[in-house]
Design a protein that fits this description.
Blueprint: H1 9-12, E1 17-21, E2 25-29, E3 39-43, H2 55-76, E4 80-84, E5 94-100, H3 127-139
Antiparallel strand pairs: 1-2, 2-3, 3-5, 4-5
Length: 140
């Protein structure tokens, strides 16, 4: 069963600062102070599960997720990229794309887990503009 659109925060709000979008999805900067390059890829319409999308939409959604990961790797050279599609708190298809660094505030724990002695990674100058341009190059 689908929850009413008005009840869904991602149907009402962008979910962060929009960095790139098309008719299927938007990529947003989550503005997380501990993980400043944390992005979400959010479906533009309401759907609860990836299997609610048709095959071509699923393929396109993953193409966008992988483009975000690739751009993060190119500009940040993280230790690891965490990809997750939970939806437990917001039952609207969205992917978390989170670059992880050995010295980040939670490493090696999940970003929602216990803090460690690390500090937030500083983003390079002009990161979001270059990140946007990389997505445009890959996705249009």
């Amino acid at each position: 069963m689908t929850e009413p659109k008005k009840a869904c925060v991602f149907c009402r709000e962008p979910g962060g600062e929009i960095v790139w979008s098309n008719s299927l999805a938007r990529v947003v900067n989550v503005n997380d102070e501990d993980h400043p390059a944390f992005c979400r890829v959010i479906l533009q319409r309401h759907a609860r599960e990836m299997t609610d999308l048709n095959e071509s939409e699923r393929d396109e959604m993953m193409r966008i997720v992988f483009a975000v990961e690739q751009a993060q790797r190119k500009f940040l050279e993280p230790e690891k990229i965490n990809l997750a599609c939970f939806g437990n708190m917001v039952a609207h298809v969205h992917w978390h794309v989170i670059p992880r660094f050995r010295l980040d505030p939670h490493y090696p724990n999940p970003v929602w887990g216990s803090r460690t002695a690390g500090t937030a990674q500083t983003l390079p100058d002009g990161y979001w503009a270059r990140f946007h341009d990389a997505l445009v190059d890959q996705l249009g």
